[in-house]
Design brief:
The structure is a single chain. By secondary structure, the protein is an alpha/beta fold. 39% of the residues lie in helices and 16% in strands. The chain has a single domain, classed as Spore Coat Polysaccharide Biosynthesis Protein SpsA, Chain A, CATH 3.90.550.10. The chain has a seven-stranded mixed β-sheet with strand order 3-2-1-4-6-5-7, sandwiched between helices. Helix 1 runs parallel beside helix 2 and helix 5 packs parallel to helix 7.
Length: 226
């Protein structure tokens, strides 16, 4: 298995009504990774996101209805494995994950030989909403306990995966809890998980994680997969 680099890595971008960000996002990604190594997964957008991806020359898989981030990521991973990529980045489509950090993920993976690198944001109120800090702190501590590895930011979707490690993993979760469950499933395979610091960016984008209700949902998922 090769080290992660810009030639053997796919970039997966799940999209749901993110049209206003896509031109800038893909411009920044293409500065790091060739355009033919990007796949967008349009998860039932109604704002013209799919049509914009087409106009930009971005390969895009389209769902007719919203199925959830987990389903979108599964489709992206399948595309990467089917097309013989060795690694895959996952980035959210709202510009809260800066593509400028891509080289940092590569350097860390090459140094520690990890199977999964997760972005680590700063959990401080001036940079992140309090309820997101609370939710992430609780779930990260529980995931760390049961995975046997220190997980600093379990809800961060900015990640670099070794795709070979995902071939035999089955995660039922279809929405945001997928990203927590897959950490636990990879840990069962003795996958090495590490982190890299990334910029903490929050805009006025609507969050689809609903604070206290989702803390309970995350904990239910953790208990299901341990």
């Amino acid at each position: 298995m090769s080290l992660a680099n810009k030639d053997n890595t796919l970039v997966i971008v799940p999209i749901y009504n993110a049209k206003r960000h896509l031109k800038q996002l893909f411009k920044e990604i293409i500065a790091q990774i060739p355009i033919n190594q990007i796949v967008a997964i349009d998860d039932g957008s109604t704002d013209g996101s799919y049509e914009l991806c087409q106009s930009l020359g971005i390969n895009c898989i389209r769902f007719d209805a919203n199925k959830g981030k987990g389903v979108a990521l599964k489709a992206g991973f399948k595309y990467g494995i089917d097309n013989k990529f060795e690694y895959a980045f996952t980035l959210d489509s709202d510009l809260q994950h800066s593509p400028k950090s891509i080289p940092r993920f590569f350097r860390k993976q090459n140094y520690v030989l990890a199977d999964l690198i997760i972005g680590k944001r700063d959990f401080v109120i001036k940079k992140m909403p309090f309820m997101r800090i609370l939710s992430n702190t609780i779930t990260s501590k529980i995931v760390s306990l049961f995975s046997g590895q220190r997980i600093y930011d379990s809800q961060c979707g900015y990640r670099l995966y070794r795709l070979d490690k995902l071939r035999n993993i089955h995660v039922e979760e279809d929405r945001y809890q997928f990203e927590t469950a897959i950490i636990l499933e990879m840990s069962k395979q003795l996958s090495k998980i590490d982190y890299v610091r990334i910029e903490t960016i929050y805009s006025d984008e609507k969050s689809y994680i609903k604070s206290l209700r989702d803390i309970k949902n995350f904990i239910k998922v953790i208990l299901k997969y341990i």
